[in-house]
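Illustration 12: Integral membrane protein.
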Amino acid sequence: MSGEGLPTGLHPARWLHNRHVEKRVSLAEKAAADLGVTFDAHSVRRALAFRWSPYFRRLRRVLIAFAVIVIAAAVTYRPACRPGGILYVSPASCTSYSAYVLGPNAVPWASATFVATGIVLTWVWSAWRGEHVASCYDPLYPLLALLAASGKLVTMDGNRYTHAVKLNKKVARLSQPLWQLARDATSEFRSSRTVRRELRQHVRRVTLAFTQAADGLMRDREVAARKLGSLAATAASSIAVDRFPEILPESLLPSTDSGGSPLEPDRLDGRRLANACGWSLIIDTAFSLFLAWLGGPAEVLVSLAVLGFPVAVYVILAAKYGLSEATRLTRSISSFFSSGSPL
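Figure caption equivalent — predicted structure in token form:
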């Protein structure tokens, strides 16, 4: 794998990552040549270079989850194993902490091997999908896919309806990474409220520019596809060189009083909450079923499930969006059940 600007290496994770990146950049580079638009492929490859930090963040999430389980077991162990306590646990489950958490017949080394295998598979999967990049460059992947799809639509013969529909869906999936880029960039640089408002307004206009260009797919698919390809190439080149406040030049942005609007931040927050709750429910259910299969007592499983669901929601949100955003989003849930107005 020897794409220009893409570091080479013999490490398997780096090789898998570079393979994923080179495939998408090459398709976008070919599409840009077919469309006759300027595309800075060298900077995009450098921006999507392999980094270890994303995997370490994921590993930290796993360690936090296990820390929560250990703390919950330490807190409930004595009350559950005390004769006449609120929770009833068989004496066989109280011989040790591992028997209490995993069940009396469980083998700790087998559980540790299972967890270690899952961590390794997650590492391989994330490298294969090219996810070892800085979070501020996450919009590059949907932009590359949009550019490649635009070039394919322009150069293909025959009926373009199906490909036009797919291209329109790619535009719809672009809004959330752009909003997340604005939020991450301002949070990491600890920008003032004015800078945050300006960057969010710019991202709103960028998203609106893509949406308006996609609306033309109903009238003239080739012209609209060329417009979308040009916007995607320009935006990807700007993000790759860290021009976040100027993702698109002013000449390509719609006026502030243009009709239509992209996805609002509150709807994005709702999607984030729904996504975190869904993953928390899946993790909670899978862990409970695993403990039940190992012979864990039902009373402990119910307690851990009830306590683990909100904790998992908060941990997922904090790991992906930061502590401040996780606190804000979880407060919106608690305000729903309170008598006062939402925060």
